[in-house]
Design a protein that fits this description.
Glutaredoxin, Redoxin, 23% helix, alpha+beta, Thioredoxin_ResA/DsbE_sf, three-stranded antiparallel sheet, oxidoreductase activity, five-stranded mixed sheet, 198 residues
Length: 198
């Protein structure tokens, strides 16, 4: 598993939700190595769903504040009633960047199911850093969401990024995966649908 642990000065990571959105990302081709691991175009290994930790019973989440591109503050509680995939990432994190194309494809596939795929950045540069990244990578439909303070990561005891949570319609965490994953796989799609609809 590849993911970046918190470093000095980076206090916590984040999760958030919002309206359904998808990303217009240029799809990087994936290739399986001889051992069968899926790799992104830059060589980063992508996990499959067997790496996901499941919660039974589900875990009730605390209030999780985040900031949208217009500077408005929101909490995850505002989006109860929708399934959510919350990805915690940063622009400087290579494994995070590697999984972005598959997250975008997951978002497009899940939009009809009322399951939002939301990525929230922990960059200290906040909204401007994410806006630059989205422009440079041609991401046009994924909302800009940030937790530059790192409060969400602390509240969720997140150990590093990328970390992805699957949250059901009642706002409860059903699964967590640490590391970059192949979110575009049929297995990922089925797993997220099953957990988020509960």
């Amino acid at each position: 598993m590849r993911f970046v642990t918190r470093r000095a000065g980076l206090v916590g990571l984040a999760a958030a939700a919002g309206t359904l959105a998808s990303a217009s990302l240029i799809r990087k081709p994936r290739a399986a190595d001889p051992a069968g691991a899926v790799r992104a175009a830059d060589g980063e290994e992508l996990e499959d769903m067997s790496a996901m930790k499941l919660f039974d019973p589900p875990v009730t989440l605390p209030s999780l504040p985040f900031t949208a591109a217009d500077g408005s503050r929101h909490t995850i509680a505002e989006f109860r009633g929708h399934g959510m995939v919350l990805n915690l990432w940063a622009t400087w994190c290579r494994p995070c960047v590697a999984e972005m194309p598959s997250l975008a494809r997951l978002s497009r596939a899940l939009a009809p199911d009322d399951i939002a795929v939301m990525a929230i950045s922990t960059d200290h540069g906040g909204i401007p850093a994410v806006r630059r990244f989205f422009t440079d990578h041609d991401i046009t439909a994924l909302p800009i969401l940030v937790d530059a303070d790192g409060r969400i990561g602390e509240a969720l005891n997140v150990r590093g990024i990328p970390t992805t949570l699957v949250i059901d319609r009642e706002g409860r965490e059903r699964g967590r995966l640490e590391g970059a994953a192949d979110w575009a796989s049929p297995q990922a799609l089925a797993t997220v649908r099953r957990l988020a609809r509960a």
